Amino acid sequence: MGKVIPFKLRENKVVEPRVIGHRISFYTDEEIDITLLSLNMFGFAEKRYTLEVLRGLDPLYIRSCLCKLRSSNLISSLARRTISMIIDNMEEIRDANV
Asked: 92, 22 in Cβ contact below 8 A?
């Protein structure tokens, strides 16, 4: 008889649900004000962002504007902490049908 070659058993791969989108939750008026400030300062389009427009924007676009404002020297340390809280509270929306 020949030698038996051992094969690794297949591991069951855990399939993670795919990301559908992102969600930002605002808890205070200060968070909304800082977000609108970042959008009006660092937004791509030359238009005025308001609370009504904020609802329809892509959360990743909002996050990029917040990161640019956080890295600038235009705001206080308290505002930087608020921006960090907004970014930390961002959630991924995942597909439940996987």
From this structure: yes
CA distance 61 to 44: 9
Residue 60: which of 13, 23, 18 has the closest Cα? 23
Q: Which residues partner with 19 through β-bridges?
A: 94
- Nearest residue to 86 via CA among 50, 65, 51, 76: 65
* Predicted confidence (pLDDT) per residue in 18-65, tens digit: 888 999 999 999 999 999 999 999 988 778 999 999 989 999 999 999
* 25 within 8 A of 89, measured Cβ to Cβ: yes
Q: What is the pTM of this model?
A: 0.78
